[in-house]
């Protein structure tokens, strides 16, 4: 069975920790490891826009000695009905791994179904697991570790980032609280799965309505856009409902005095987060953005190692 990274819980706590250890080593000595030397190619496919994911995978694959092939899928047959299973079968003959950013998680699963090489989720409507590897690396760096640390995520608690904080945070042994307005709660299935993981790691998960309670005394305050890609024209009045969840100086004052602030970017300054906080001394968002590069290099290296060890693997 080829290992994929479609959701945060595709890595066990020990595996997540191993990937983060490798990311720290790769960050400390950026050009030392070249598992893609050959060069072996990696396809990075985008159904949605991107700056950080696109660039960090492109640069990271090159730094690993590989050949990145970054594709806007509007230029392919994806929009003309080519089956993702067929596309994955074809791509698996050319490349060593496939990264996809898309809409529904069913599309990600379909691609993985046809793939004979590892598939990585570069963001779906449901999850953003590569971002969480970067976030956890950043938390390790600024909070001295993840186990036992607390994180309060406020804003759109129904989106990919909220779901990934729940799953990846629980996997890392963190105490994760998420809070959003009514109608923007996380998927009950994801909360249940995160609680199950947390029971084994010493972490915990809580879904709240009150943003003040969500950030009270936490080590990490996190937020994300109130309007995710694909929701721009859904006609919902988000600004009014989300306003109490803005990460501003007043809300942040309820967290630990040395709490750090995360935002995956792009930020809608003045909506989910103020300039004062984003540019302030507690913000670590640019370390977080940099860590996409190191975390994804480590993930690709780790997945390719796993793949090489799989029975019948051409690279094994
Ligand atoms: N954080 C993140 O995934 O950014 P992009 O949408 O620019 O890739
Ligand atoms: N929730 C956001 C994350 C962007 C990186 C979105 O899906 O648009």
UniProtKB/TrEMBL annotation:
Outline the extent of the Aspartate/ornithine carbamoyltransferase carbamoyl-P binding domain: 3-141
Q: In this record, what's one Pfam family?
A: OTCace_N
- Keywords, in A-Z order: Cytoplasm, Transferase
InterPro entries from the xrefs?
A: Asp/Orn_carbamoyltranf_P-bd, Asp/Orn_carbamoylTrfase, Asp/Orn_carbamoylTrfase_sf, Asp_carbamoyltransf_Asp/Orn-bd, Orn/put_carbamltrans, OTCase_ArgI
Q: Where in the cell is it found?
A: Cytoplasm
Keyword Cytoplasm on this protein?
Answer: yes
User: Where's it mainly located?
Assistant: cytoplasm
Q: Which GO terms describe its molecular function?
A: ornithine carbamoyltransferase activity
Q: Can you state which reaction this protein catalyses?
A: carbamoyl phosphate + L-ornithine = L-citrulline + phosphate + H(+)
Q: Which residues form a coiled coil?
A: none
Q: What is its EC number?
A: 2.1.3.3
Give residues annotated as binding carbamoyl phosphate. Answer: 101, 128-131, 264-265, 292
**Binding residues annotated for L-ornithine, in chain numbering:** 160, 224, 228-229
Ranges for domain Aspartate/ornithine carbamoyltransferase Asp/Orn-binding? 148-302
* Pathway(s) of this molecule: Amino-acid biosynthesis; L-arginine biosynthesis; L-arginine from L-ornithine and carbamoyl phosphate: step 1/3
Q: What class of enzyme is it?
A: transferase
Transferase among keywords: yes
UniProt family annotation: Belongs to the aspartate/ornithine carbamoyltransferase superfamily. OTCase family.
Which HAMAP family does this chain map to?
Answer: OTCase
Q: What PANTHER family has UniProt attached to this entry?
A: ORNITHINE CARBAMOYLTRANSFERASE, MITOCHONDRIAL, ORNITHINE TRANSCARBAMYLASE, MITOCHONDRIAL
Q: What is this protein called?
A: Ornithine carbamoyltransferase
Identify the coding gene: argF
């Amino acid at each position: 069975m080829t290992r994929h990274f479609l959701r945060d819980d595709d890595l066990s706590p020990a595996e997540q920790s191993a990937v983060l250890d490798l990311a720290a080593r790769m960050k400390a000595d950026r050009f030392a490891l070249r598992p893609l030397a050959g060069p072996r190619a990696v396809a990075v496919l985008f159904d949605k826009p991107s700056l950080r994911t696109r660039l960090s995978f492109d640069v990271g694959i090159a730094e690993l000695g590989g050949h990145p092939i970054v594709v806007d899928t509007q230029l392919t047959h994806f929009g003309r009905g080519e089956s993702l299973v067929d596309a994955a079968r074809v791509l698996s003959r050319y490349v060593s791994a496939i990264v996809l950013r898309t809409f529904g998680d069913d599309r990600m699963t379909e691609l993985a179904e046809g793939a004979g090489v590892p598939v990585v989720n570069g963001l779906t409507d449901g999850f953003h697991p590569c971002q969480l590897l970067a976030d956890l690396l950043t938390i390790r760096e600024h909070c001295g570790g993840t186990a036992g640390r607390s994180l309060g995520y406020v804003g759109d608690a129904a989106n990919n980032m909220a779901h990934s904080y729940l799953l990846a945070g629980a996997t890392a042994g963190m105490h994760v609280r998420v809070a959003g307005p009514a109608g923007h709660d996380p998927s009950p299935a994801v909360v249940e799965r995160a609680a199950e993981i947390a029971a084994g790691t010493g972490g915990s998960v809580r879904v709240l309505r009150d943003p003040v309670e969500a950030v009270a005394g936490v080590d990490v305050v996190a937020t994300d856009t109130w309007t995710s890609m694909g929701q721009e024209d859904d006609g919902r009045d988000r600004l009014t409902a989300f306003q109490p969840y803005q990460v501003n100086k007043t809300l942040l004052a309820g967290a630990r005095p040395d709490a750090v602030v995360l935002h995956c970017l792009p930020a809608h300054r003045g909506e989910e987060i103020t300039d004062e906080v984003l540019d302030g001394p507690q913000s670590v968002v640019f370390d977080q953005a940099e860590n996409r590069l190191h975390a994804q290099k480590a993930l690709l290296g780790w997945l390719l190692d796993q793949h090489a060890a799989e029975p019948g693997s051409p690279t094994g």
